[in-house]
Every structure is written in C-alpha cells, then in structure tokens.
C-alpha cells in the first residue's frame, strides 16, 4: 500500500481526464476487496491470474484489505492452495529486495473453497468463507470481484451461482468474463443473454481474450493503432503503457490537461494519417506455441471460428466524446463509454467479410531442418486428437474495409496463424508511394522502395518504428531502408506490466475503457458470421502450408490484390 494516490483514494485513482474521473472511486480506507478466482485449479489461474495479482499487490496497487479466494471443484485446503499459488509466483518485478516477504504476505491472504459450478450450495459456502474473512478486516463495505477462469460452457452457471448466492451485500460485485465467446452471432448472443439474466451491465466486465493472450506483451492492451470513426489513427506514442494507465510507479504521472495533450498521435503522425495513403496490417504469427500436443489442436478446433478477433479491428479512440456536452466543447474524452461508443461506430462502418477476401490455411508436416535439429515437424492432422481429415484452419488472412469518408478504399489486412516461421504481433501501416516519385526501385504497382512504414510491435520486444529511406553514405546515389525506432526495453529500464495486471487493476477501479461491451461484440460478430457460415456450408478446404513457413501462398495473393507488400 505504497501508492499515495491509492492511499488518498483521490479522484485521480483511475482517471486521466476529467471525463474519466466520472468512474466511481472507492474509498479503500473504508472498504475491503475480495477477489474470487472461479476455476482456481486451472491453467490460466496459475499461469496468469495469480502472478498478476501478486504483481499488483507487490507494487502496492491493491487495496490494503485485499484477499484472494480460489473456487473450483478440486478438493484443496487453504494450505494446499497457498502452495499451489506459491509455485506460480516469481520475483520478476523486483528480484532484488523484499520479494520473498511480499510473497509470504500475499499467500497469507489466500483462501480456498471447493465447490461445483452449477449448484447454489457451493457458492453459499464460498459466501460464508468470504464473509468470515471480510469481517476480520473490520471494514463496513466489502467489495467482491470474480474472475471466471473456466471453460465457456459453464460461464452462465458460474456467473449465476456467484451473482445470486455470493454477491457482496455491502459493496459492489464485478465479474470478469473473457470474450469473445460462442461460434457465431447467435451462440454469442445466447451466452450474452444468459449472463445478462444474472449480471447487470455495470457488473459484467468482458475482457478481450485475444489481446490478453498476447503474452508476454506488457503493452499489449495499449500498443495499438487506435482508429476513431473520424478516421484519426492514434498511435500511442511515446508511452502507450502510460497513456491509458492510472497512476502507476512505472509511469510517472504528468500534470496538467493530460488527455487533450496526449490522447492522439504526435502532430507529425496525425498529418500523415490525414491522407488516405495508408494500408494497415495486424499480423500475428505463432511458432513456439504447443500446436500439436496437450489438447492444443482441440482448443484450436473450438476457437478458430473466433480467430478474426485475434487481429481485431483497430480500436478507436474518440476524437470527441459521443456525449453531447463534450461534442459542443470539442473536448477529447477518455471516458470508458465514449471510447466504446466510438469502437462500435467503427465496427458499424465495416463491411461484412466476403469469402474472396479470406485465405484459410492449415499447416502440414515438414521434414526436419534448422531449428528442429533434423526432426520431422508434424502437421496439424498428425495430432491424434485432431479428427481425421479435419478442415479446421490454423491460419487466416482477411481483408476488411471501413466505409467512412476517411478510410474509403484503404484495405485493412489481418492475418493470424500457428506454426509460422516467426512469432509476433504487430500493426504495420504502409504508406503509399509518393506521386511523381523520382526513385525507381519498384517492388509492386503502388509500392516502391520509397514507401514508408510505421510499425507498432506488440510482441516480442514492444517497439514502435518508422521505416524510412536513406541515402547510403558515400559518393554514389544508393538508397537503403532504415529505421527510426523506439524499443521500450531499451528506452525505459522499467518492467512492462503483463496485460492481466492491467485488466485486473481496471476492474478494481471500475474502469471499462478497455473492455468489450455487448453491442461491440455483436457488431464484430455481424462482420464475420456470414462468412464463417459460408465456409462451413461449402466445406472450404484450407490451403496447406509447411510447418515453420510464412503461411499459405494465397495470403500473398490476397495482399497483392490490394497492392500490399506482406512481409
Ligand atoms: P482449464 O481447462 O485449465 O480449466 C479451468 C478449470 O475449470 C479447471 O481447473 C477445472 O477445475 C475446471 N474445468 C475444466 N473443464 C471443465 C468442464 N468441462 N466443466 C466444468 N469445469 C471444468 O482452463 P484454462 O485455465 O486454460 O482457461 C480458463 C478460461 O480462460 C477458458 O475460458 C479459456 O478459454 C480462457 N483462456 C485460457 C488461456 C490459457 O492460456 N490457459 C488463455 C486465454 C483464455 P476443477 O475441475 O477443479 O473444477
């Protein structure tokens, strides 16, 4: 509890701007916080949630009366649960001092309650255990936060059980659910309706699963091209982690009218984006992920339908708030609802994906060489858990179009895949060639060597760089492409937070800016559902690509169709 802003529970706790200050602020000197991880025995809890909670605790960002409760069907005592958590904690933030003490202090706040997900009695037991421990804090108000870290098929039962039997009687109750869920518009809406029967809009926090999944991207939630419906692409330069962060010791807080000065890209880049001379790609390539064992393939079978969300449409930032007052005052807003309104507007402006704008791929075996040390690299169908002859894609490339005045004619190409040659996630903005260009090194009809690119790399090594062309020193006239770059780890000797830390802190603070709203999810599904159904109906076979390659050749044809160079 070393963060002065939190100690005072001042309105600056969660806000970067006046509008954002509208987010309710808790007086933590009067209230306690119970975090309940439902599915506490699972992989995600161990890998991400417990370490993130510990990191926040270690940094003094959790309220002083914070407690952690695990809930799952597995039988465990409090002691066994503490041992399980203890094995997941690392001293990554500050390996030098006090980490062991902090770990012990953290573990002393952890409790476990075994119980089923679909029976109210289990949650009643949990409620008793929480109430008991909350009473010991002596605080009048006990807030509760649930993280549903369980498979989506038990979401509704668990949310219902928790909300109906274990809500806080004195403070707020918030429930985190990872989205998107479902296979298409209809199944997603059904799940959404199920949750809405138990949770109000205020209580439900829909986390963007694919953004969170970009491990170990500390700036994953922020280092994105942010696109307002007015068409301004807002690159979060120079400090993405700070821009949307609450006061945090890793992000020294600036004084003054913060949001208006910092919420858009630097003036230079804004000018660049005023012209429609750009092409944007968001690529994700995963090589090292376990794709052929431990059920990875099964997971793939069920989630591949939502792959387009992995490279989700560029998130917008409101140019002006959709709130009438803000529009009249021409004020920039970082208010959660305003941001999400703008995101919905962008999605509403997007055309549904056409099948001819989709390339699907599936990786095949490749005889060993290089990294594999000579071993054969297995194909997707070689996994014994994969149904024989499965048409499940392990790669997708898609072209999207935004039908508004700013982006008319600018293709947005997205790709995501497994078993590719490299692993990473980035947004790449390609600028078109300069009309009347006197340099002749053409590599495509509209792209030549003098094409500039802005790259926002989310992982690995978070960075932002501008690819420019430069004359090679010497007496000759030879051009070369070089980078003006900012690598976060080189520029700042600060530990970048994990995306789950950001997520959990936002929920504690009631800040919904980075969460998915139901109408946003609905719009996103509307863009993809028809093509997903068509792919299923026509049984479209994915194009095979070798394990460890750049993906199917079709993806390059798709890029070429839009005059984009795809690296
Ligand atoms: P797990 O498969 O590890 O399941 C979590 C817990 O849920 C298990 O420990 C088990 O606990 C219980 N459980 C498992 N299967 C079932 C079932 N069929 N019915 C009821 N309960 C079940 O999942 P993860 O921890 O990997 O993931 C949790 C959620 O997070 C999922 O929705 C997943 O899609 C999502 N996610 C996971 C990521 C990861 O890296 N693992 C990344 C991004 C999202 P018990 O038996 O003790 O009750």
Automatic annotation (TrEMBL):
The lineage of its organism: Eukaryota, Viridiplantae, Chlorophyta, core chlorophytes, Chlorophyceae. Residues 330-566 form the Glucose-6-phosphate dehydrogenase C-terminal domain. Keywords: Carbohydrate metabolism, Glucose metabolism, NADP. InterPro entries: G6P_DH (IPR001282), G6P_DH_C (IPR022675), G6P_DH_NAD-bd (IPR022674), NAD(P)-bd_dom_sf (IPR036291). Pfam families: G6PD_C, G6PD_N. Residues 36-209 form the Glucose-6-phosphate dehydrogenase NAD-binding domain. Coiled coil: none annotated. It comes from Dunaliella salina (Green alga). Belongs to the glucose-6-phosphate dehydrogenase family. This is Plastidic glucose-6-phosphate dehydrogenase.
